[in-house]
Design a protein that fits this description.
With 308 residues, the chain is of the alpha/beta class. The chain has 3 domains: 116 residues, 3-Layer(aba) Sandwich (Glutaredoxin); 84 residues, Serine Threonine Protein Phosphatase 5, Tetratricopeptide repeat, CATH 1.25.40; 82 residues, Alpha Horseshoe (Serine Threonine Protein Phosphatase 5, Tetratricopeptide repeat), CATH 1.25.40.10. 61% of the residues lie in helices and 9% in strands. It is built from 16 helices and 5 strands. The protein is elongated. This is Thioredoxin. Pfam families: Thioredoxin, TPR_19, TPR_20. Keywords: Disulfide bond, Electron transport, Redox-active center, Transport. One of its GO terms (cellular component) is cytosol.
Length: 308
């Protein structure tokens, strides 16, 4: 599977995926009415031939994106949705309606100054129960959960939404690189990593990605897990085979099994190959992240073995 990493996309593009969208008659309820029960939704009725719409539309998008999720914007092309425009009694455009709790509660018609547009958004945002929407940390956590479920393409899309708002967000950039690694695009991940500005390159999560790439490359040399299991079945103290089996598990995304084999190797012979098992576990912990539950539980198990 190949996924695309656009780097620091233009803010309006990815942010629009969160706060701005095009709507139509068929999706009006799910795009406007239902979401407005939780977060105010501003609807911009426009048309391609409308001169003032060309100024107002981008202004609305800019101010809604700046509100960070406290309000949403749905854009309706009246030429393509004449029935909906008639139902809403749109007689001239641009026409802007603000919905809350499923009902239009505010708005304006025609070209208005930026201050009036901003005031509308501020009024709606002030009454929003959603506050500023999900925080960056919450969005990153969502992306990491999606990646953990085995969907690097889906996680990439969410990570890039964060980068669109903040191109210097190191955890989001690291997340994108992890998506490439999980998708098997290790060389692309390495290429992207080499181009990182120095301010990002030194971040702990970027360093963890470097380790993850090193482990991924090493794992490709581990050999078939089935063969390694047969070797261990006949010789449980073949430490190289157990080490390689751990990396084969890692290559297959079986993180816990990889940790288990390395801990077992450490238990059997902690000094083997200059403490290779312990050192490899430390690399895994860095690649997983210090806050990862598997890292924390494995560290406790390693400490128990070290001091037993």
């Amino acid at each position: 599977m190949e996924i695309l990493f656009n780097g620091s996309a233009k803010a309006g593009q990815a942010a629009g995926g969160n706060f701005v969208k095009d709507g139509d008659t068929a999706t009006f309820v799910q795009d406007v009415i239902e979401p407005s029960m939780k977060t105010p939704v501003i609807v911009d009725f426009w048309a391609p031939w409308c001169g003032p719409c060309k100024t107002l539309g981008p202004l609305l998008e800019k101010l809604v994106n700046a509100a960070g999720g406290a309000v949403r914007l749905v854009k309706i092309n009246v030429d393509k949705n004449q029935e909906l425009a008639a139902q809403m009694r749109i007689q001239s455009i641009p026409a802007v309606y603000a919905f809350k709790d499923g009902q239009p509660v505010d708005g304006f018609v025609g070209a208005v100054p930026e201050s009036q547009v901003k005031a509308l958004i501020e009024r709606m945002a002030a009454g929003s129960t959603a506050g500023a929407g999900p925080t960056t940390e919450e969005i990153l956590a969502e992306a990491k959960a999606i990646l953990a479920e085995g969907d690097p393409a889906g996680a990439m899309a969410v990570f890039q939404e964060v980068l669109a708002q903040d191109p210097t967000n190191a955890p989001a950039y690291a997340g994108c690189l992890r998506c490439l690694i999980q998708a098997g695009q290790i060389e692309e991940a390495k290429r992207r990593l080499e181009k990182l500005p120095e301010a990002l390159a030194g971040h702990a999560e970027i360093a963890a990605v470097r380790t993850a790439i090193e482990l991924a490359e090493q794992a490709t040399q581990a050999g078939p897990a089935a063969d390694l299991r047969r070797t261990l079945a006949s010789d449980a103290d073949n430490h190289q085979a157990r080490f390689d089996l751990a990396m084969a598990h890692y290559a297959a995304g079986e993180r816990e099994a990889a940790v288990d084999e390395l801990l077992e190797l450490f238990r059997r012979n902690r000094a083997w190959n200059e403490e290779a098992a312990r050192k490899q576990l430390v690399k895994l912990f860095e690649a997983f992240g210090r806050s990862d539950p598997l890292t924390q539980s494995a560290q406790r198990r390693l400490s128990s073995l070290m001091f037993s």
